[in-house]
Each structure stands twice: as C-alpha cells, then as structure tokens.
Amino acid sequence: MPEELKPSDPPVSFESLGLIPQLIEACTKLGFTTPSDIQAASIPQALEGRDIIGLAQTGSGKTAAFALPILQRLFASPQPLYACVLAPTRELAFQISEQFEALGSTIGVRCAVVVGGMDMMSQAIALSKKPHVVICTPGRLIDHLENTKGFNLKQLKYLVMDEADRLLDLDFGAEIEKLLKVIPRERNTFLFSATMTSKVEKLQRASLVNPVKVEVATKYSTVATLLQYYVFFPFKHKECYLTYLLNELAGQTCIVFTLTCASTQKLALMLRNLGFDAVCLHGQMSQPKRLGALTKFKSGGRSILIATDVASRGLDIAGVDAVINYDVPQSSKDYIHRVGRTARAGRAGKSVTLVTQYDVEWFQRIEHSMGRKLDEYPALGKDRAAVLLLQERVAEATRFAHMQLKEELANAKAGGVGKRKRSGGVGEDAAEKDDEESVAGRLVRGNNKAPRGGGGSRGGGRGGRGGRK
C-alpha cells in the first residue's frame, strides 16, 4: 500500500520547496507566487526521488506539481528523452507541452508532442532531434516505438500519467502494457488525477515502487469557488432552456457538454442560426480542426464551445465563466471533470446541469457520490413562461440545423467536395468555416419566404428550401 501524505500549511514560497533559482524565475514570470497545496505536498517528495500518486481538484496546479521536479532533475543531469508524459486526449497533450516549455524556458528544455491525427513523419523528425520531454497519447507513442527507426525510451528516467485513472482503464490497457515492457524498471513514476482510482490492481499496472500518496482532495470534490446548480424541465423543451440560459449568460464564456458528436454538431448549428457565436469540438473532427476550434475559443474569438467529453479532462482555458451540462454525464467522475473547466486557479465559476424526466436517476447518483444536493438555478425563478416564448424561434433554428446536417451527410456520401463547401454543413468544413453570417441570413430568408407556401407544412418546407438557394 502506498504511504499516504496529507498536506499541512503550504510553505510560503517555492524556495522553501527546494527549487533552483532558474525555475523560481520561470514561475514568477508565469505569475505563480506561492505553491498550491498539491505542489507544496508533492514537489519535495518528488525531488527526493519518490514515486507519487497525486490526487487534487481540477485547476489546482497538478501539471506544475510534476513538471517542476522533473525539470530540476533534468537540469542537474541533462540527457535526451529524459521524461515521457502520457495524456488521454490530444488537446491535453498539447497543453502539457506548453506548460513544460513555459516552466523550462529559463533552462532551455525541448519538448515533442506525439499524438494521433497528425503527420507521423514530422513527429519522427521531431523525435530524431532528441527532445528532453516527450508528451504523447499512448497509441501514437507505441506506433513510433514500433515503426520509427532509432527511437526508443531505454534511457527514460520519468514516466508521468496525467489523468491516470483514465489511462489505467482497460481502454488503454494494451498500449500501457507494451510501453511498460520497453522502458527501464529503474525509473520514477508519477500518477496524477482529480478522480484517482483506489483499485490496487489498477495502480499495480503502473509498476510503482514504494509510492507516496499525496491527497489534497477527496475522491469526488469540487473547489469552493464553484457554484453548482440544476434546472429540471420536460425533455421536449431542452433546446429552449439551453437557449434561455445562454441568453442569461450573454457576454460570458461558456462550455456546453453533450454526450454524442451528433448532438454537438446539431447544437452548434442551432445556436449559430440563433445568432450565438458557438464553435464545436468533438472526436470525429480532424486534429487540426480540433486545435483550430479550441484556439478560437481560447483567444476569445468565440464565447461558446459545444463539446463532447473530449474537452472535459485537464484542459485549462483561462476565464471560462460557466459550464452547462446539456446532457447529464454518465458518471460522477465525468461530472467532476466537466465542471472543473471553470472556477480554476482560485477564480469563481458556475455550472448548470439540465435535468429532464429521463435523467433523474443519473443526476441523483452524481449527488450521492458528491455527498450533497445541488440547488435549483435561481435566475429562472418565475421566468419559466419566458423560456417557452423562445419555442418557435428555437424550433425553426433546430429545423434548419437538421436540414444542414442532412445536406452535409448527402454531400459526403455523394463525394461532392465542391457542394460540401457551398453548403456550409457541419462536418470538418463547417467547423473550420464557422460561417454564422450565412447561416443567419439563410434563416432570415427562409422565414421571409415561408408565408408564400400557404401556411401548410409543405409550403413552409418549400420556403425553407428557397431560402437556402
């Protein structure tokens, strides 16, 4: 069993943790003035050469907690391919790389990101330059170990699993097993997550040696600065309530989480039709498009991100004001990670979960796991009648979204590349194009032409088609 370590009052500075001046200077440049709880508890243990299991809330500085000791040991004895950091999602891998480069800017650290969906040849060239730290997803790392000539991890000193509970699940089992066979037994291993598994057999798969468990949060806890609410309503009004909430949160940045790629695409189109600057992110988009969508949202070019759980783990997006769970997550872990995208690094934030009659059981399980009851969203109050006033506009926007989806699907099947670009559909071209103006204009023209059809549904349909020409 790992030795458990509960943090006392954190030291007042990074110097007292034993960090070298170069790293303290980098922390100061990044605005890190005092260590967080997880950093104060884990960095001294890591500098002593211990294996670590770290459990802390989302947004508490876990990346710096494992990056700083690795960079300090690397500075003392430089060598290529010194550390390997595994992440469950591609976006998280890029983010960890940015943190390593920022924290190691004063010592000249070199990093390489190796993830799926990108060109293997350019990654092989980056690996041939012998970076100090490789940040990767498990599948693509194994591809390179098996197929890239001259690349191996036989001299590896540190293996880090960020979001370790996800990596140790069976989904990544085969890749992790292969990796552990080709890296040295004499190494340090760090496991970090906000929802760490307690199952011993899972932890044993990581081949830890006499680890210390640094725990600064309970298994299912959220930060105190996060306000958590729910809204209960009939399923048929789901899009109306989402639209109402986003109107209430106008001017704030929001992430809306869904369960499927299809609903992500549909909602993004529907919201654009209604004039919201929404962009979508899901696993069926190509990697450049995923990074492009994320960059638009991070830079403030879009204020609403509609995403599947691919965006729920580890992503640190500054200034996210609210998280809306359009679909109730299927597990308490997913809920913790979703709402952890807001109220990060001491900032305030709010989350709202949309609950229909079909979601009550899942929602109650989440409440039970957290040991608390969530409050009903106060801004609704007696305004439920106002929500239903949006019904007609939302229904029309949803209808157009469905038509665009069908167009995109038909064009994709026909292989009509030119048609797909003109249609502004929801596939990769639409995700890149993100053409709210043409969509909004299409909707307005469709509304203007609808009365000519004579009021019947068939005539309205003709009006809609005419509006799209």
Automatic annotation (TrEMBL):
It is found in: Nucleus. Keywords: ATP-binding, Helicase, Hydrolase, Nucleotide-binding, Nucleus, RNA-binding. Residues 12-40 form the DEAD-box RNA helicase Q domain. Residues 43-214 form the Helicase ATP-binding domain. Residues 412-469 are annotated as: Disordered. Belongs to the DEAD box helicase family. DDX47/RRP3 subfamily. It comes from Geranomyces variabilis. This is ATP-dependent rRNA helicase RRP3. The lineage of its organism: Eukaryota, Fungi, Fungi incertae sedis, Chytridiomycota, Chytridiomycota incertae sedis. Residues 241-385 form the Helicase C-terminal domain. Residues 452-469 have a biased composition (Gly residues). The keyword ATP-binding applies. The gene is RRP3. Residues 429-438 have a biased composition (Acidic residues). InterPro entries: DDX47/Rrp3_DEADc, DEAD/DEAH_box_helicase_dom, DEAD_box_RNA_helicase, Helicase_ATP-bd, Helicase_C-like, P-loop_NTPase, RNA-helicase_DEAD-box_CS, RNA_helicase_DEAD_Q_motif. One of its GO terms (cellular component) is cytosol. PROSITE patterns: DEAD_ATP_HELICASE, HELICASE_ATP_BIND_1, HELICASE_CTER, Q_MOTIF. The keyword Transmembrane does not apply. One of its GO terms (molecular function) is RNA binding. Pfam families: DEAD, Helicase_C. Its main location: nucleus. A motif (Q motif) lies at residues 12-40.
